[in-house]
Write a structure and sequence with these properties.
There is one protein chain. By secondary structure, this protein is an alpha/beta fold. Helix content is 40%, strand content 26%. The strands form four sheets. It has a six-stranded mixed beta sheet with strand order 4-3-5-14-6-15, with helices on one face. A hairpin with a 4-residue loop joins strand 1 and strand 2. The longest helix is centred in the N-terminal third of the chain and has 25 residues. The relative contact order is 0.15.
Length: 304
Amino acid sequence: MDKLNNMRVFCRIVELGTFAAVAREMNLSAMMISKYMAQLEESLGVALLNRTTRQISLTEAGEIYYHRGKQLLDDFLELDESTSQLGRNVRGVLKVSAPIDFGGLFMVPAIEAYQREYPDVKILMTLRNSHVNLGEGNFDLSILVTDTLDLGVVARKIAETRLCVYASPEYIAAHGKPQRIEELSEHRCLHYMDTPHRDYWIFRAGNDEIKIKTHWHFASNNGRALCQAAALGMGITQAPEFSVANYLAEGKLVEVLQEFRIPSLAIYATYLQRRFLPAKLTTFVDFMVRYFAENAPSGVDRAA
């Protein structure tokens, strides 16, 4: 019996919630996952999981074993990575989560430049706007465009952008230009889903932050779709400046409510604090900081 493997299976069951999810992730049958769990519990002489037809929960022994076992697995991973890096080459697979728009627009050229310098590092990038819990172990690194950060993560600022409100000249000609935040209730709004502020748009009036819930007519989790909609005169949108840079340059969108914009949003590379950080992670973060300082695209500013 491979107890380390069985421990790994158990921890992933706790983290993913079902035997089937772990089986899919490990490309094994659910029966094999059940076999590994049975071997582990038999070797320990205690039940680690309470199983019902609807859900799985930890026993008291399972709670203790999970936390200690997760730490041991992390220690083994750190040992492997630290030993492998005694050689010259930085290598491995780096799993990165990035927002759909920022990742789609800017991360691929940055990754291409990084891999020219570190060709033995493979990058697995997932584009998503929803919150990433780095503690679940699915990602090594999360790129965030935000003004709020989770506790317990290390955050390196790689760039900045502005969060502004935009409309097309045609929309303004037809519906008027809002002069106050309150006037947005009279306009067709285009809403960016899955942001840290969820259903609200954020503004600054003097020293006060103001949140308003708009009456949106079109919503998407893709900023480029919203910018296209705004450029077609479908309504007003609030978006990071990098999403609209081309539309601004072509005169298809203009900024409104400039005096109420919030301070710049930071673009962070975030990761968990560990006693040992693998070279694939540290070299990538350092490279991103340098890359965006030297190659800041339109709508993105160098980190202050």
